[in-house]
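As a warm-up, study this chain.
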Amino acid sequence: MTQSPPRTGPLTDLRVIELGQLIAGPFCGQIFADMGADVIKVEPPGQGDPLREWGREGFPLWWSVVARGKRCITANLREREGQDLVRRLVAEADFLLENFRPGTLEKWGLSYEALQAINPRLIMIRVSGYGQTGPYAERAGYASVGEAMGGLRYVMGEADRVPSRAGISLGDSLAGLYAALGALAALHHREKTGEGQMIDATIYESVLSVMEGLVPEYQFEGYTRERSGSILPNIAPSNIYTGSDGMVIVAANQDTVFARLCTAIGQPDLKDHPDYKSHVARGQHQKTLDDLIQAWACTRTIDDIEATMIANGVPVGKVYRAADMLADPHYAARQSLVDVPSQRWPGLKQQNVFPKLSATPSRIRWAGPDQIGSHTEEVLTEILNLTPEQVAKLRASGIV
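Now compare it with the structure written out below.
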């Protein structure tokens, strides 16, 4: 039986029962665990969450991030005895988190209405592709599809080819983040009224929420945003420039900052050139201006470009990869990456708990438990008061 290190952070008095798998729901659970909540993840016996196997061959490291800090138990939710365990856990919980296809929990007798009857204060967090209502509700929904429906995919990438993707499961993470935000808002309501409620978080609407003025621009101007690669049209200069040994981003589209950029590249009079003296003019001559800055940058190292821009007060940043993050002094000073206890991956570094809270700081207790059901006996004996013999009987019958 795995013993749990003490929890720290602002949510140590809260308990989350996490059902579901992969990313969108479990990322919401990761946020709660990072902030100190007791997150109990329920996995099917014998197989666990498929995310346990995700990653490059021999290095399934994704699980260690999304499942970090959680207690992991097993329960067969397709059997009555497994469903009963969830009902009993819900009675002692603040939140139930799930990201199954809508209708799945209802089929198992674990609907919101049924669970609220057990615990009226329960806040049920439901994450799905399309939501619990509407004509698409029962469709399978993955992040890629939600990103497309929410409008993100169409505007990502270069104009002369099919839309690109972010390189991460952005729609899943946004949905998990909004689910956590909604759950904490519901918690505030519960503190005032004693009432629980249901959070209906979707991937496509989470993406839609960050699409800025995309819909109003079309509605009132007939303007459809298109793919524009590494730039925003008419926002200049703000682009990636290639030095002799890498890439940097320089953002100097504001008038006063552009004047400082002109000094930095040795052309102080450029700020008064009619093609560049205003925001509108720079946008109209964006390509020419980018070419001019690139010609200056191409013979310089990215360290030299960065130092020059910093000295002149121009926003600049190297385009980081993991190696750059591990070597960066600002990352180190702010502990943006920290060592996380892990039996399988000694010396494992992960992104730290974020955001940082001054009065109630949190810490990551462990990487996702490698063994399926690592905390089953601990949770069932501690919370449900089962005896070790009862747990063993459930295990022998395939319920846990």
